Amino acid sequence: MLPFARELLRRGTQVAAADPLLCKGISSRQLQVVPSGSALPVIDLSQISSELAAAAEGADLVVLEGMGRSIETNLHARMSCDQLNVGMIKHPEVAAALGGRLYDCVCQFRRSSTQA
């Protein structure tokens, strides 16, 4: 979705502010889009951009979304804050490895590794 929105903005498309709460979050910087530092659909958390590392410092929750980033490479990652992994299984090999089916959705919440 973000690449599509970026292309629309590049072309000069104007979109009305349909959601005042989201607009407020963006203007107050509570809601930010930060590059991961990876051009791949997966993300190696040891190789994230310094901008992402700085933005995530002190976070209470990290959300990893998508099959590659949340399921294939980081489903078992342990963080010092709470984490939410969400995605859809799109490869038969991943479904077999997880004991699921193709197009099953995964939603896993994990408390921080520093909490009991």
Automatic annotation (TrEMBL):
Gene3D superfamilies tied to this protein: Uncharacterised protein PF01937, DUF89, domain 3
Q: Give TM segment ranges.
A: none
InterPro entries for this protein: ARMT-1-like_metal-bd_sf, ARMT1-like_metal-bd
Q: Which residues form a coiled coil?
A: none
Q: Domain Damage-control phosphatase ARMT1-like metal-binding, which positions?
A: 21-106
Kindly list the cofactors needed: Ni(2+)
Which Pfam families does the record match to this protein? Answer: ARMT1-like_dom
Q: What is this protein called?
A: Damage-control phosphatase ARMT1-like metal-binding domain-containing protein
- Give the species: Chlorella ohadii
Taxonomic lineage of this organism?
Eukaryota, Viridiplantae, Chlorophyta, core chlorophytes, Trebouxiophyceae
